[in-house]
Amino acid sequence: MFGHKARPGGAAPSSEALRLEDVRKVYGAEDNRVVALDGVSLSLPAGSFTAVMGPSGSGKSTLLQCAAGLDKPTGGRVLVDGAELSGDGEAALTKFRRERIGFVFQQFNLLPTLTVLQNVTLPLKLAGRRVDKDRAREILGRVGLGDRLGHLPAELSGGQQQRVAIARALVTEPRILFGDEPTGALDSRSARDVLGLLQEAVRVYGRTMVMVTHDPVAAAHADAVLYLADGRIVGHQSAPTAEAVAERMTRLADEVERQRTSGRAQAGV
Ligand SMILES: Nc1ncnc2c1ncn2[C@@H]1O[C@H](COP(=O)(O)OP(=O)(O)OP(=O)(O)O)[C@@H](O)[C@H]1O
């Protein structure tokens, strides 16, 4: 189980799970300055599944890191579940993250010396919460790993490791789950399984999911796609299909290339 079930028929998106107000992120200083996010504003309802796409370097990972409180924006505000991720200090931010946010990475990031069960209960330990092993076992059963509790990550396939990572992200019942290319290292069948689990976490258990991906098939599992280019949101697509996403991405890549070429021409390089 991924937590308490939402109302029959799916989650009722009544509140806002994530809000970004004019978020900017600038890396470097002076002559090597990079504007990774250039005034991003968005609002995602609770119980929604959003894919974030855009050309390489458009700011997708930076957006996720800032929204999840793993990196600090240079300007603007990030609100998760109505509460601002702000400068109350690193300890407060860590506590906030542990209580309300889950993260799934491309490379799984499991601890190699801990068993599957220990990896999944770790976030509860770190948050100083009761380590409910029955609940962890239940979640691992739900992701199809009920018979692998004592195995080490190296004894599992990539798809299985990512399912452990999903169980680990969900064990604290976070309000919002971020995925940075969670299927990027998986074959297409394992990717489908993982995407099915993420959809279930949203549709049945009312979690909110934000997922960066390069894959139109993965993006088509979301309710909506946000498109980024050069650190700005340049498009939104509801009920995406893989074909429509692929077509939009091709157009976007062409537009970005045209703008960069004309920028170089104006600069005389
Ligand atoms: N730590 C950093 N220091 C300096 N520049 C950075 C840093 N992290 C990212 N950038 C720059 O910020 C911009 C956005 O990077 P980001 O990784 O968010 O893009 P992305 O859309 O996730 O790219 P990709 O699809 O290739 O993973 C890029 O120009 C990148 O070079």
From TrEMBL:
Pfam families: ABC_tran. GO terms for molecular function: ATP binding. Keywords: ATP-binding, Nucleotide-binding, Transport. This is ABC transporter ATP-binding protein. It comes from the Bacteria. The lineage of its organism: Bacteria, Bacillati, Actinomycetota, Actinomycetes, Streptosporangiales. Residues 18-255 form the ABC transporter domain. The keyword Transport applies.
